[in-house]
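Page 42, continued from yesterday. The earlier attempt failed because a stray header line got pasted into the input along with the sequence. Redoing it now with the clean sequence only.
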Amino acid sequence: MKKIGDNFSFIDFGPFEKMDQISFKHPKLTEEVPGKQFLKDELGLTSMEVSLNKFLAGTSMPFSHKHRENEELYIFLKGKGEFCVDGEWFEVQEGSVIKVAPNGVRTWRSSSSEELLYIVIQAKAGTLEGSSIQDGIPVKG
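This time it went through. Structure tokens are written below.
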């Protein structure tokens, strides 16, 4: 279901556990990447890219990468895995959150017998002015 209003965009992809039924065709890979859904175009996002992700047990990112301008925030919702930034590996699990600067070379993998569910938020580094508390405006009702 998808709904667009003057001041909102809404979409429902269903349960996160069924994300492996969605695939993304990366322009630099020959195979589709299962369990990945980008939201920028789906929701008309203008200041960030967000992706919903599901790695099956034992799955890994097929390449390491970095970015030109965007930092990324990884929010892990379920499962256990290992994340590498600039050659340093550490364990991630439900509740782990990682910020990676644009030049950080990153890759990750699921390291348990269960799926790894996570969200990635990507935005241009150094562009946030103020916090959500400073930006909020009280309204009646």
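Notes: The chain has two helices and twelve strands.
Reminder to self: strip header lines before submitting.
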